[in-house]
Design brief:
- By secondary structure, the chain is an alpha+beta fold.
- The protein has a single domain, classed as Yope Regulator, Chain: A (2-Layer Sandwich).
- It has a 6-stranded antiparallel beta sheet with strand order 1-2-3-4-6-5.
- The radius of gyration is 16 Å and the shape is globular.
- The mean pLDDT is 92.
């Protein structure tokens, strides 16, 4: 069922998410986001009857306790995306969707695309702005984030 569901999802959303490919462990796409190049993952857990849409990145170096407070506040603000740590200690932004056996595949596909955008937005909008305010990140990252902020303001 897992492989069939992911294959069905791929057919329905491959035009919506650039570079989406079927891999042995799920659907994957490399997204060139404001945050930087990130890997978007779409996985199916048949036992839990759910689809997880996620991105994982290294937590910001030097962020300290205030970063944990930011994560908790973000979880309280968003109902569709949660932030935590994965098993390797990376920052995980994820959205879980019900995918029981009788799921409406069209609605699920729409929800996956919406959640994929929301997961990336958490990094691009919330995390990047938080990092810029605290002058965290490498000089190259900060330059990229700042220039993209200025481009958005000019648009």
């Amino acid at each position: 069922m897992s492989e069939d569901l992911l294959t069905e999802l791929h057919r329905r959303i491959e035009d919506e998410i650039d570079g989406l490919t079927v891999m042995p462990d799920g659907l994957r796409a490399v997204v060139d986001a404001r945050f930087g190049e990130i890997s978007l993952c779409i996985d199916h857990d048949p036992e839990e009857e759910m689809i997880r849409v996620s991105v994982a990145v290294a937590p910001p170096a030097g962020a300290g306790r205030s970063f944990l407070v930011w994560c908790l506040a973000l979880n309280a603000r968003y109902w569709d995306v949660k932030v935590g740590l994965d098993s390797r200690g990376r920052l995980l932004a994820h959205a879980d969707l019900d995918a029981d056996e009788g799921v409406d595949i069209e609605r699920l596909a729409e929800a996956v695309v919406e959640r994929a955008e929301a997961v990336v937005d958490v990094l691009d909008e919330d995390l990047v702005e938080w990092l810029l305010e605290r002058e965290l990140g490498t000089p190259d990252q900060r330059e990229r984030w700042q220039s993209e902020r200025e481009e958005e303001e000019d648009a």
